[in-house]
Amino acid sequence: MNQLLDKIYETKVLEDSQGNLINPFPTATPYDTGMIFKELIQKNHLERTLEIGMAYGLSTMFICQSHHDKGSGSHIAIDPFQSTMWKSIGMLNIKRAGLSEKLQLFEAFSYEVLPQLLAEGKKIDFAFIDGSHQFDYTLVDFFYVDKLLEVGGYVVFDDIWMPGIRKVLYFILKNRGYEIVVNHSDISWKKRVERTARRWIQNPLERDHNGIRFLPLNICVLKKISEDNRPWDFYRSF
Ligand SMILES: C[S@@+](CC[C@H](N)C(=O)[O-])C[C@H]1O[C@@H](n2cnc3c(N)ncnc32)[C@H](O)[C@@H]1O
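Above are the sequence and the S-adenosylmethionine SMILES. Below is the predicted complex in structure-token form.
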């Protein structure tokens, strides 16, 4: 992929600006998720990408490297705490990996930046939602991402182990023109069963749509298949 990314996943540590070693997991995106981003972006020639929640910049590096490898494309990252909580380590990693020209960072809350991008007439082909994980914030992130996203584009939700994230997905799949893209993953059956059981135990009576609780990974990839053409009073319970 790129040498720095490979080293971080091999050693499970990264360095801050003083050379201190930090374990970025479990905050950071797992390797198999990063490889799914790469495949999606490169196979579908996705040029304009955006992510909410950068932290140590591992997902950011996967996405920027995917643009670098295909020779075009650019990425926007939004994270209000990049220089404070994360001590700019994400930006430092992007620089170390030689990917700075692929990235534009907005150091502010997603609910501030996304309306600004919309007002500027920005369009995107891919978004990764991994910022605040509360139900209402995630739904607001999706609301704006959907307005920026072209039909045929993709939006990926992280942490579907969380009931609030799954609830947002149920709303989308019942009410909006999106479909799940199931990724081929060589994840073991043991891990799959563990993940499904955890999601089940959290809320046995949950109304699952489209088998979200059975997805093999901790992400859900959705493809936008139509514009929002609902009548003004449309509502399907979810
Ligand atoms: C799980 S971490 C992101 C990990 C990163 N995507 C990766 O895979 O390496 C969540 C990030 O969301 C950021 N965050 C929290 N609330 C946010 C908000 N309202 N808007 C944008 N980012 C937010 C946090 O600062 C944190 O960096």
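The beta strands are 14-15, 21-22, 48-52, 74-78, 103-106, 124-129, 149-157, 178-181, 220-224.
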